[in-house]
Structure formats: structure tokens, C-alpha cells
């Protein structure tokens, strides 16, 4: 019997909402049965990985399990023991972050600081809930949400920047860089994907290429060659058509000249053949036998 369950993904009905490009709407699920945890992928596009291996069936989680969505996005779920620090947020003075606002419950939410720059805000059954702006629209989360320093969280109607929560947790952020317009959460994902690509390249260099990988590489090379040929054809097609038109015009002209010569020759041969003399009156008057 499942005691507790977390549905994880980018959809609003998820228990843990992660708004990132590589996360499917319903990406994976974590079940707690007594004191044991189980991870299961929900048919995600980029897969769920446990300690670097993509899972294909329900798998039990160890105490030090490392979960990534796709190959790069580290996951810390609300009940995870991997959280390095937890701050409690609410109106009561005993909270780590005290918000003196009428819409804030006495114990409203908690802020989890995870490894590798992962941060989660979890609602603790508050009266007015926890909300966040996603794609320009404010959404009340079902249970928890992964956040980034650029965002703000609404506890009831009290708006708190994530950077303030990080400062309260003693998290020092690196200096701001030009990220080319990356949205919330995309910077971390891009950096993690870059690390994953470097690691994959190193693994590929150390491991002999499999037959499937070789066929895939050859197929990609053939596709690139066909694309190049199509591009070359499209760039020279007008000139090619002009050359073909001239060639066909030339053959048509030669054929027309030969036809005229043939007609003239037949006419001349017909004129030179001896004419049959007309029958005499006597021959015309004889009855046929």
C-alpha cells in the first residue's frame, strides 16, 4: 500500500512542478511505502535517470540515490533526505522566515536547499496556498515547485523574491552573467546539459563504438549528404533548367530541318517518276473481259 506519492513534471497538476524545457508534463513518480521509496518514469520524452542509468521500470531508491530528469536536471523531491538545508516560512515568529501578513498561515511553507543549485518551495497545507508566475500567468501550485533566483513566490498574497529566501538560507549566488535572454530555470539546465555533453563525449572516446551507434552515425552522414545535394540542386536549378531548355531547343531545330529535307526529297522523287499515258478512246470503249 502506497503511503505517499509525488507526481513530478511541468504540468500544473503535478505534486512537484518543474518548469524546465526538458521536463515532460508528467515526467516521473515517486512512491513511499512505509520507509522505502520507489521511482517510476511516466513515459517522459527525455527519460528519468537514477545514478546515471535510465530506468525502464519501477525502481527502489537508495539512501544516496541521485535522480536526474533527462541526463542533466538534478531532482530533489520534498521528502528527500538529500536536502542540505530547510527553512520554514510562515506568520508565526518561530519560523525561519517570518512574514507578518494576514494572508500567510502560521506555518505556511518550507524552502528546501538541495545539491547542485536545486531549490524547492513546498506548501504545508496553508489556507491561501503558494503561487508562482509561469509564462506570465500566476498559478497556485498543488504541492511544491522548483524555483530559480530570478523568480518570486507568493505566500498567500505576500510576494517574496527567491533571492531573499536564498539569502536567508545563507546561499551565495555567483555574479550575474549575460545569459542571452535565458528564462527562469533555463540557465541551470543549459549548464548541466553542457556538463552532461562533455561527460558523454569523454565516455564515447573511452568506449568502442557499438554497431547501433555506427549505423546511426552513418545514417546521419547520409542524411547530411542528401541535404547538401538538395541544397546544391536548389542553388543551381534555374541554370540547369536553362541549359536543358537550350539543349532541347537545339534538338527540336535539327529535327525540324531534317523533316523539311525529307518532305522535299519525297516531292522531288515523285516528280521524276515516269507518268502513265492516258488511255486512248478505243481502249476506253472496249468492254471489260
Description of the molecule:
The protein is built from 4 helices and 18 strands. By secondary structure, it is of the alpha+beta class. Strands 7-4-3-1-2-16-13-12-10-11 form a 10-stranded mixed beta sheet, covered by helices on one side. It is elongated and about 130 Å long. Residues 177-190 and 232-243 have low confidence and may be disordered.
Topology:
Elements: E1 4-9, E2 16-17, E3 28-33, E4 36-41, E5 48-50, E6 53-54, E7 59-61, E8 67-69, E9 73-75, E10 85-90, E11 97-98, E12 109-114, E13 118-123, E14 130-134, E15 137-140, E16 144-147, E17 152-155, E18 158-161, H1 162-168, H2 186-206, H3 211-272, H4 281-285
Parallel strand pairs: 1-2, 2-16, 10-11
Antiparallel strand pairs: 1-3, 3-4, 4-7, 5-6, 5-8, 8-9, 10-12, 12-13, 13-16, 14-15, 14-17, 17-18
